[in-house]
Structures are given as structure tokens and as C-alpha cells.
Design brief:
It is a single chain. By secondary structure, the chain is mostly beta strands. It has one domain: Beta Barrel (OB fold (Dihydrolipoamide Acetyltransferase, E2P)), CATH 2.40.50. It contains 2 helices and 10 strands, in the order βββββαβββββα. The protein has a 5-stranded mixed β-sheet with strand order 8-1-2-10-9. The longest helix has 20 residues. 22% of the residues are buried. The N terminus and C terminus are likely disordered.
Amino acid sequence: MMPSKQRPDPQKSLVGFAVGEVFYAIPIGCVKEIINPISLTRLPYVPDSISGVADHRGEVVPIVDLRARFGVPQFDERRRTKWILVDVGNKTIGLIVDRVTGVFGTGGKSLRPAPNLGGGEEVRGIAGVTLHEGTMVFVLDIDRLETIADSLHIQDMQLTTGSLKG
């Protein structure tokens, strides 16, 4: 008899990670894979928060450095750095995180509202806040990640058609 495939625990709906000293999470349903960093190609004319693109199993994936995106100083300790590959819309983007902390749920509680951090590009895209093991965790807004992916797709089209001027 074949062993039955284990179903994921429906209570564990978030993948947690750290960027600097702050803890974040994203819904597990949008996580495609968590990988160790691979070869990265840097591109001109992209925002500072975009580290470049990587060829992951034949797909060209833009890689977003969350330290740069969130204004956290870079550091040399990259031993535990991971890339979280996320499906947003019909695109995949990679998020560089300092470390993955695990999979957890909200314990049946809904997310508390995100703090008002101002507007514009500085908005980090926080959907809400939860507590996990006594620590505040900021849950990222997947719609905001989709907006980032869409803007990267537009820039990629401009690069391939040569319409960006240096």
C-alpha cells in the first residue's frame, strides 16, 4: 500500500522570515519554493531593490532584495540568506531574505491592521500584523508584490525592445 501524501496543516498559513531585526511573513499559498541563492545577473536601469534576474529551472526570475527595499543596511553575513520564490499573478519573483523562520498560522485570530507608514514608494506593502511566539510579525501584502512584479515586467519589455536610454 502506498503511503498517503500528508496534507499541509491548514492552521499553518504563513511562511515567516526575517529581514534585519524585523520579522515578516507571506501567505504560504503564494510560496512556490524556498531556495539557496543561485547565480544572479545584474541588469542596468532597474531600481536599487532589484538585485537582478536568475535562471531558475528555465524561468527568468527577477530577484528583489528586501533589505534594499526596506532601507535596511546591507551586511556581509549571508550564510543563512534564502530566496523565497513567490507566485504573484502569473509571474514568479524571488525575495531575498536574511533567514526563513518557519511556517505558522495566526492561531485563528485575524490580522491586526497595518500601521500607517506614509505613502508613496516608501510604503512597504504591509497587509497586517500578527503575533507569533510573542514577536510582532508583519504580513506582506501580496497585491503590492504583484504591483512590483508588473512594474518589473514592463521594465523587462523596455529592456528587450531597447526603449530605455542610458
